[in-house]
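dude i think i finally got it to work??
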Amino acid sequence: MIEIAENDCITEKTAVALGFFDGLHSGHRLVLAETEKYAEKGFAPAVFTFNAESLRFKHGKPLEYIYTNFMKLEYLEMLGAKYVYSPDFDEIKTKDGEEFVRDILCRKMNAGAVVCGDNFRFGKNACCGAEELRRFGEKYGFEVRIINLPPDAFSSEKYRNMLREGRVYELYQSSNAYTLCAEVVDGNHIGRTINFPTINQNFAERQLVPKRGVYHTIALLNGRFYDSVTNIGVKPTVGNYDKPLAETHILGFSGDLYGAFVELTFYQYIREEKKFGSLDELKKQIASDVESVLADSPLNTDFNCDNI
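look at this
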């Protein structure tokens, strides 16, 4: 996938999907898939989005984004985008609707077709919508495809609320599985002293943190999937961290992962985070969590990579 820089322009005609694409859920994938239908006209699939970390507010409310920009770009490439332009919001926010269409869609992205959901807004202060986009398409010579989403369609806000409630199994079942991919950082090494070594991964600033507690997760390492137990929280038994992080014990794996980016898919919520009276109590609980994970592992039965 080619990331378009500020001074770049695409030379071949494109079919551009428009959206913030936070979470890249099933509704977003409908929009992205539509761009591939223009291949018969020779249009390359492209995406216009915003850098996830640059958008601080949405609909007048502070935004907790689901995926970092790094993750979003990785998944857009997996979903077939050949080009992506993801500027900071501040670089675009003062353009009115026609300036956005002329300068970004036409000149920079060379759009032959543009695809978006029926609720997409663009231009300064979100002044334009689908009807304005159609009129600009007629004026500037590109096709416009509006995806009419049903009222109960999956949305990013619904995704956020489900994560806040720990409803990750429902997300997994609906092929909207939540994934965390972040660098493994140094921890306090307590896990290895109780025979349950763990990796630690931080959430980015303003990234949404799912409901605190213990989860059954699936770790992807070197092309292989492993059952794992992930605690999201502040490690109350061993010292209370200032910010919640993900601490994961990967079943059946041993090795040094510091500095690596490990991908965790959240399968099921197990229990709430708890402060234990001793490390021995914590060890017994982790052993129980591991038994629960092994007894209900999708890797043994209905595991479907398409759900991830």
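The radius of gyration is 22 Å.
im so relieved honestly
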